[in-house]
Structure formats: structure tokens, C-alpha cells
């Protein structure tokens, strides 16, 4: 997936958690092998070239593409898992793989899990009794600065995902044109229980632009967001303040 993953795992029976950690790391490598569009031998690349049928791919390929189809429906087409007529689940697979790996550790008995996949974070449980996880949101216009700090405030599940141009340039495509999205935004950060969906919604919202994105994000259940425009204007959903601290 072309990025760095970092784990912060608390509690649980040591042997069980160590085994689950090894499985979680293996699952991330497996996701890269199956879904990378940069690998000629990945199943998604072979599917795109017509060398494999969907039924011949690993079951998670159909799972991820189905999730992408649902994200496309809920975003009115602003999210897509295709590019130039070929399957390309890049916009969803990192969040999906990160969330799945984090849940392996929680299921194994870890009392707290923070898994950061290239700046997008899935939080489960708590780091310590009476403490919350805290995630800094980078300021895209002030390198090294923070735009906000998100606190899990005791939530059992919370995810923070950001899409923007600060680190990777204009890499987000407008599904309607197939070209880089023309938008007034430089970053969108979405807070939601699931990183799979937070990742999708941040990408779709960025492509929409601030005016349409804010109203759409407000309509999604259990979703809050922070939007920053190229003009250094900050816009937030009404409930975001409850997650800041």
C-alpha cells in the first residue's frame, strides 16, 4: 500500500497479543499483495487486465469492491473504485486493511489498540483506565503545526482519516472527469467509528469541494469532519467539537 504502519497495543495476554500482532502484520502485507495497483502480479492488476475473473480472486476482493460500490451509492458517485474503466480500490483498501488488522488485535484480547496507516488511524478500546486516545491532525498550510487534536473521549471505536494535497499533491481524482479533482479544499479530516468508511468519506468530500461536502457530511450518521480550504478557512460539522481536546 506504499505507506508506513505503526501499532500501539495495550493490555491483553502477552502470547495471544503477540500472535495476533504477527497475524495483523501479515494481513497488511497480504492486502498489498492482493490490491496494489503498482504490482503487476497483484490480483487487482490481473483482474483489471482480464487475466482473472472476480470469482477466481481471493474473497476479500469481492468484499472490498462491494464496500466501494456502497460508498459510491452513498456519496452520489463522488467515491469510486474504478479508474479509466478498470477496478481500482485504492481509495478504500488502506482504511479497510488498517481497520481489519486493528480488530484482529482487539479480538485477541488487547484492551487498547491504535493502528496508524499512513496518517489514518483506527482506535479501539482505551490506552489506560480513565484515559483516551489522542490523534493530532496536521495543518496542511503550516508544516509541523496541528489543525486540531481528536480525542476518543472513551469511545470504544473511533477512526480519524484525512484526504488532501499537502503530502501527495493532486492525487485525488474526480470520478466524473477522470482527472485530478478541482476543489477549494486542501484537506478533509473525517472522524467516525470505522476507518473503512472514514477513509472513503474523506476522499469523496475532498473531491466535492467545501460547500457541497459540508452539507453531505452533516447528513451521515456518526460522522464529523474538519475541512480546510486553500484560503485558510476552517469549516466543521456541528458535532466535531465533542471530539476535540
Question: What would your notes on this structure say?
Answer:
The chain has a seven-stranded antiparallel sheet with strand order 1-4-5-8-9-10-11, covered by helices on one side. The chain has a two-stranded antiparallel sheet with strand order 2-3. The mean pLDDT is about 95. It is α+β, with helices and mostly antiparallel strands. It has a single domain, classed as T-fold (Roll).
In short:
By secondary structure, this protein is an alpha+beta fold. Helix content is 35%, strand content 24%. The model has no long low-confidence stretch (mean pLDDT 93).
Number of domains: 1
Identify low-pLDDT runs: none
Secondary-structure element order, as H and E? EHHHEEHEEEEEEHHEE
Q: What is the overall shape?
A: globular
Strand sequence of the main sheet, in spatial order? 1-4-5-8-9-10-11
Count of distinct strands: 11
| Structural class based on helices, strands and sheet pairing | alpha+beta
What's the average pLDDT? 93
Task: Tell me what portion of residues adopts beta-strand conformation.
Answer: 15-25%
Amino acid at each position: 500500500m506504499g505507506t508506513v504502519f505503526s501499532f500501539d497495543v495495550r493490555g491483553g495476554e502477552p502470547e495471544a497479543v503477540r500472535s495476533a500482532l504477527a497475524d495483523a502484520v501479515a494481513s497488511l502485507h497480504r492486502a498489498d499483495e492482493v490490491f496494489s495497483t503498482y504490482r503487476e502480479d497483484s490480483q487487482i492488476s490481473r483482474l483489471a487486465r482480464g487475466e482473472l475473473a472476480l470469482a477466481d480472486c481471493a474473497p476479500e476482493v469481492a468484499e472490498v469492491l462491494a464496500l466501494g460500490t456502497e460508498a459510491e451509492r452513498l456519496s452520489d458517485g463522488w467515491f469510486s473504485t474504478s479508474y479509466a474503466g478498470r477496478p481500482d480500490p485504492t481509495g478504500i483498501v488502506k482504511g479497510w486493511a488498517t481497520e481489519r488488522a486493528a480488530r484482529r488485535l482487539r479480538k485477541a484480547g488487547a484492551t487498547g489498540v491504535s493502528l496508524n496507516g499512513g496518517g489514518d488511524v483506527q482506535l479501539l478500546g482505551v490506552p489506560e483506565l480513565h484515559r483516551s486516545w489522542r490523534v493530532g491532525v496536521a495543518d496542511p498550510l503550516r508544516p509541523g503545526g496541528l489543525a486540531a487534536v481528536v480525542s476518543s473521549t472513551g469511545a470504544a471505536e473511533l477512526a480519524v482519516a484525512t484526504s488532501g494535497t499537502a503530502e501527495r499533491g493532486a492525487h485525488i481524482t474526480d470520478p466524473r472527469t477522470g482527472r485530478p479533482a478541482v476543489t477549494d479544499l486542501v484537506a478533509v479530516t473525517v472522524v467516525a467509528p470505522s476507518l473503512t468508511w472514514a477513509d472513503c468519506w474523506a476522499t469523496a468530500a475532498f473531491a466535492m469541494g467545501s460547500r457541497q461536502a459540508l452539507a453531505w457530511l452533516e447528513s451521515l450518521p456518526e460522522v464529523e469532519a474538519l475541512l480546510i480550504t486553500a484560503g485558510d478557512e476552517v469549516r466543521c460539522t456541528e458535532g466535531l467539537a465533542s471530539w476535540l481536546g
